[in-house]
Amino acid sequence: MADIVFMALHGENGENGKIQAAFDLFGIRYTGTGYLGSALAMNKGMAKQLFLENGIPTPRGTSLKRGEDAAKIEDCGIHFPCVVKPCSGGSSIGVSIVHDKAEYEQALKEAFRWENELVIEEYVKGREFSVGVIDFQALPIIEIAPVEGFYDYKNKYKAGSTVETCPAELSEQITKEMQGYAEKVAEVLGLNTYSRTDFLLDAEDHIFCLEANTLPGMTPTSLLPQEAKVTGVDFN
């Protein structure tokens, strides 16, 4: 039996808490967040509700299950443009920014290919950031600026698709506020050891928390290692 398992899985089965729960049952130690925190963070709808209940700003949104009336977003005050994404997906797979009803219907078809529950939220135009947290202490903020479009699957994994700046060029006040929210996300969701939370900052300097990642990438060019490097932590 392994002394400890280094978790480097991505996607539903690696991040939704099932493997973590199995390891707990067999007494196997592993890196990263436990099963409950993994399950909470993986469910974007549930995480969003916890953000709201704990004073963490997040875009207005609602869940939509297969078979429900797609027009329910109007009752929730969500207007176009808006964002359609699978409730438990990763790597921005199945995510669309839509500007009208036709695009909305097409985005629903695409997202429902991946799972039976979606999150629909208001579109916030702004700069994109990510904040790593280790042992509930925030790392320097990194800004992710896609050359084209938004930080989707292509831009996440195609070399040269984004410009990443760490530490991000932000005021001291915004920096502390965003880092504080990242630490609070880790506390609320129970993301022990390490995590990474994504944010948007609009033109009026309003911060919006998008989602948390319990198993962030761990290559030398991944976001969390870049942030750690600024603090003097070598990748090796």
Automatic annotation (TrEMBL):
One Gene Ontology cellular component annotation held by this UniProt entry: cytoplasm
E.C. number: 6.3.2.-
GO biological process terms, semicolon-separated: cell wall organization; peptidoglycan biosynthetic process; regulation of cell shape
Molecular function terms, GO-annotated: ATP binding; D-alanine-D-alanine ligase activity; metal ion binding
Keywords, ordered alphabetically: ATP-binding, Cell shape, Cell wall biogenesis/degradation, Cytoplasm, Ligase, Nucleotide-binding, Peptidoglycan synthesis
SUPFAM superfamilies assigned to the protein according to its UniProt record, in alphabetical order: Glutathione synthetase ATP-binding domain-like (SSF56059), PreATP-grasp domain (SSF52440)
Localization (cell): Cytoplasm
Pfam families for this protein: Dala_Dala_lig_C, Dala_Dala_lig_N
The ATP-grasp domain, residue ranges: 48-236
Matching InterPro entries: ATP-grasp (IPR011761), ATP_grasp_subdomain_1 (IPR013815), D-Ala_lig_Van_CS (IPR000291), Dala_Dala_lig_C (IPR011095), Dala_Dala_lig_N (IPR011127), PreATP-grasp_dom_sf (IPR016185)
Main localisation: cytoplasm
Family: Belongs to the D-alanine--D-alanine ligase family.
Protein name: D-alanine--D-alanine ligase
Record lineage: unclassified sequences, metagenomes, organismal metagenomes
